[in-house]
Amino acid sequence: MNIKNRRPATLNRSLTAKAIAAIICGSTSFAGVAADQVQTANDDIETIEVRGIAASNKQDINNKRFSTGVMDSITAEDIGKLPDVTIADTLQRIPGIQIRRSAGEGSTINVRGMPQVTTLLNGEQFLSAGSITTLQPDFTDVPAALLSGIDVLKSPQADTLAGGISGTLDLKTRRPFDLDQGTTFSLTGEATRGSLSEQTDPKLVAFAGYNNDKFGIIVTAAYDESTLANYRNGTILTSSEVQNETDRDFNGDGDFNDSFYSQRFYGVMDRETERDRLGLNTTIQYQIADTLTFTGDLFYTKMDDADRKQGVMVDNARGSIWAYSDNFIPRLDNEQGGQIYTVNEADLKVRRVSAYSESLTNDRESTNASFLFEYQGDGPLSGEFRYIHGEAERSHTENVAHGFLTSGAQHGLLKNHGDGITPVNPNGYGPEEVDVSFSRSGEYLSLGFAEGFGNDISQYNLVSTYSENNFEEEASLDVARIDGHYAFETDHLQNFDFGLRASKRDVERETYILVAPFTTGNISADVMWKDSGASLGDTNGDGENSVAGGDLTLGKTNFFSDMPDGWVNQVNGLGPGGTGHSFYLVDPKVMDDPMAFQNAIYPGNKRLANPSRTYQVKEQTQTAYFKANFAGELGDLSYTANIGAQYIKTELDMLQNQLGSERPCSLCTASEKTGEKWLSRDYSDFLPSMNFNLNVTDDVILRAGYGKTMTTLDIGKLAGGVSVGRTRAGDVLAAELGVSPDLLVAVQGRQNGNPDLEPWRATNYNLSAEWYFNDSGLLSISAFLMDIESFVENGIVMQGLPDIDGVIRREVPVTTEVNGQGGDIKGFEVVYQQAFDFLPAPFDGLGTSVNFTYAPSDSANVDVYGESLPIQDNSEKSANAVLWYEKGPLQLRLAANYRSDRLDSLSSPMGEGVVPFWTDSTLYFDMYAGYEFAEDMSIYTSVSNLTEEKEDIYAQWSDHVITQNIFERRITFGIRTRF
After folding, report:
1. Long-range CB contacts (< 8 A, 24+ apart) of 330-334?
2. C-alpha separations of 905 from 669, 715, 814 in Å
3. Nearest alpha-carbon partner for 721 in 755, 764, 745, 689
């Protein structure tokens, strides 16, 4: 891309202190600075050649230096210089930014430990199909190549749309009037290969622009395909439990009052994510008159995503203790006077070995259009009018194939299709339990089986298949706003900004399952869990629902050996740390279309809405703001400042389904809808803010910021009903409750919406000192405090929920959203950035950028020992380091990104609190090397996740790792040209 004024730049430091006021405030006339000086300063800023690593770092420093508050930015030439597939991958290099990964790619972000971050597109709200119910986009579907830069605003200002507790991201697209006159073209092609997926993926980015100073147009297109290895070891399903030992003295203390804490499922999964991503951006600018400019933007994204899993899973089928070891670790006291133990290595007596396959698909599409008119006359008044319309939709499906290697006799799962009662998988391993070795002591969680186990395809049977948690979301957004600016000619007050804004956002979500018709005996029903060991009821009329007693089961045997060609594949090893064995598994690719797959096995499937997760929400906001901008001198020191306030009124109308105790289907998760009602509420917020910047010297700036913030609630947390998770009781739980082993009993619940939730609210304080010791050097330290008045968190409450027969027999844990009792996050950031151009050749091409963030937090939750837990997904420490080299045609860069442990989620109650699931600290390395062999043509290679870093998730104790997400190294080769 050609940028204006492509000549080297140096800031005129003698003008800097006074010119800051002029540049920031944007007034046509102001005290103490002559017009020619201001123009000179502006020219100096523009003349930085944003091409190459060193120049882009200079631009980032300049953006920060001349900002009106605490902020950081990344400019265009930074984006794509590392292996930046998504915006989140790019943002992780900014101080205070923490990212979460999806299949190894950056997806969502935190600022200073908080995920409640507003994201704007060219200064306004937009819809992202990855997060229709929230303001914060899931960046997975937004290509970084569409953007010219990103600003991270950390101190609130009245004219910036409220919604971020810890900060606001402003994504900026390119503008035609920034191009040289004439045409500009750019083309980039890449090929990327993963170390584990071993597939080569293409990427193409094309840019075309035209500018004649009166009219300009830009079109940018980015397309890529990716196949990402994303293995998972450990707990495939996150259920856990404390089992009381009543039959053996496993720790040798002479009693039977000790307990064992364990996950219910362990496994190894070959997981692969396939993505096709398309992004388009078109911008038109037209100078209607000398005083009026029109800018139109169209921003389009589309991504088709399939997350496919296949692997082996072992569990005790909700039976008794199943781990035998001489290495039990005491953790804490239990309620029986004994202790709760865990193990790191054990011999498992497994009652069920499953061949598990799953396909999750996500199709996303969004379109955002913006129409902006800017007026700048000769007088003191200027302003803008803007209208925005956005539409987004997302379709999500889940499809499961649950095969058995074991017979089912181990836990009493039987079938009766009218030809006699047999184990559900009559050719499977059994009736004895399967010996499996388990270890979490090495680099990878591992399972070990006897030699030859799993090699015989005739032992495999598809016992259960179902499709649930499918949903379709649609959203629309309309925004109209008018902004005005009035300039003054005074010693301090420079101009006054004011504006009005109105927005409307409509969101609809329909969640559904797939059910097929079944008849057993005289009972007919639509069924979701198509389980060949399940019974619809008392088919033999003896008054008891029992397969062992003669009741018929639904379904049929579906031996893997009888399945169509291409449906079953033999998988060896199952990835790093796998079993070392080969297993037969249903290929999840054939499951991408749930309706077709389910109908191929059990015909007649249809969609059935699940009203507990179906809702409609209408949100309207009205906003007014004012901001006064000041600049001048205090004694011998110059300053800039702004003070203002934003008023927001939010109105919510929520359509919530009313649920009954009956079910519209059998063996399913859908609830009965008995009615619906509209719930309405509104709330208002008055958000004052202030920023003050003092130029202590030409090179040192002190900043202070204050502001109240609030963030719009996740719509998915407002609406929806209670959903109940049920499973077969099995012999142990059946004996405890006095029911049939075949009864589906409630084991957990989810309150899917709380319409009375209050939004996140906080008061933010910022202090920073910034030393710009040369035009490419920066040393800064920032302190911040977020006093959080109210926040939303996941909580677990015990609640009585009905079993499948409608009877409430016990209380089970129910997860829901609640308002936390307040807290704070306080910390600091340190940034050092410098080009070492003072060194002798060839070392004068070196440079570095290092930052560190410390952001501890507390919440009302406590762990099993009563110790306070932090806010979820907050890393107390994070750091980024970049070492770069640029000399002549050669560019090199090595980058590291660190996050300390973060609280992932809360599990079941234990001890004095709950069991926290933590994600262990991570350290990612990326590198880039490029060579410009012609003036406008270069080749490059990049490596992401150089060391193949993985995510370890542990329960309470750092040595008790329960899950691992294993990501691959990805190597890219590319060529870039511009003309």
Report:
1. 330/251, 331/261, 331/864, 331/956, 331/957, 332/864, 332/865, 332/910, 332/911, 333/911, 334/242, 334/244, 334/257, 334/258, 334/259
2. 23, 20, 14
3. 755
Strands 414-416 and 421-423: antiparallel
Residue 663 has phi, psi (to 5 degrees) of -125, 140
Closest by alpha carbon to 130, among 301, 359, 271, 279? Answer: 301
Structure tokens at 292: 């009026």
d(CA 68, CA 20): 9
- 362 neighbors 472 (Cβ within 8 angstroms): no
Q: Which residues, including other chains, have CB under 8 Å from residue 353's CB and lie 6 or more apart?
A: 312, 313, 314, 404, 405, 406, 429, 434, 436
Q: What are the pLDDT digits (tens) for 859-914?
A: 778 999 999 999 888 899 999 999 999 999 999 999 999 999 999 988 888 999 99
Other CB atoms within a 10 A radius of the CB of residue 543 amount to 8
Distance separating alpha carbons of residues 334 and 475, to the nearest angstrom: 49
CA distance 60 to 62: 5
DSSP-based three-state secondary structure for 596: helix
Question: Based on the number of CB atoms within 10 Å of its own CB, is 23 exposed (0-12), middle (13-18) or buried (19 or more)?
Answer: middle
pLDDT in tens, 759-815: 889 999 999 999 999 999 999 999 999 998 877 776 676 778 778 787 888 888 877
- What are the E-state strand segments in 455-591? 461-466, 470-487, 493-520, 523-527, 530-531, 568-572, 582-586
Whether 853 and 768 have beta carbons less than 8 Å apart is answered as no
Buried b (16+ CB within 10 A) or exposed e, 424-439: bbbbbbbeebbebebe
DSSP string of 697-725, one letter each residue: SSSEEEEEEEEEEEEPPPGGGTS--EEEE
Distant-in-sequence, close-in-space partners of 701: CB < 8 Å, separation ≥ 6: 65, 693, 694, 695, 769, 770, 772
**Cα–Cα dist 142/124, whole Å:** 16
Are the C-beta atoms of residues 818 and 795 closer than 8 Å to each other? yes
Beta strand 950-955 with 961-967 is: antiparallel
H or E element: which one contains 25? helix 13-25
Place of tokens 């939004």: 759
Strands in 157-199 per DSSP E: 167-172, 182-194
DSSP assigned state of 861: -
- b/e per residue, 937-950, with b = 16+ CB within 10 A? ebebebbbbbebbb
DSSP, res 670: P
CA distances (Å), origin 103, targets 325, 808, 851, 962, 967: 34, 40, 26, 18, 7
Q: For residues 144 and 584, give the distance between their C-alpha atoms in angstroms, rounded to a whole number.
A: 39
> What would the DSSP string read from start to end of 733-749?
HHHHHTS-TTSEEEEEE
Peptide bond just before 842 cis, omega within 30 deg:
yes
Torsion sign, CA atoms 593, 594, 595, 600: positive
Is residue 718 a contact partner of residue 652, using CB atoms and an 8 Å limit?
yes
Find, among 938, 778, 51, 81, the residue nearest to 89 by Cα. Answer: 81
| Preceding omega of 431 cis (within 30 degrees of 0) | yes
pLDDT tens digit sequence for 412-445: 899 998 889 999 999 999 899 999 998 888 899 9
Bridge partner residues of 707 (DSSP): 689, 764
Does 557 have pLDDT greater than 70?
Answer: yes
User: 241 vs 141, 734, 801, 863, 920, CA distance in Å?
Assistant: 37, 17, 18, 16, 22
Distance CA 784, CA 340 (A): 41
Q: How far is CA 823 from CA 491, 760, 767, 787, in A?
A: 41, 11, 20, 6
Place of tokens 């804004």: 501
What is the C-alpha separation between 744 and 713, in angstroms, rounded? 35
Q: How far apart are CA 786 and CA 434, in angstroms?
A: 53
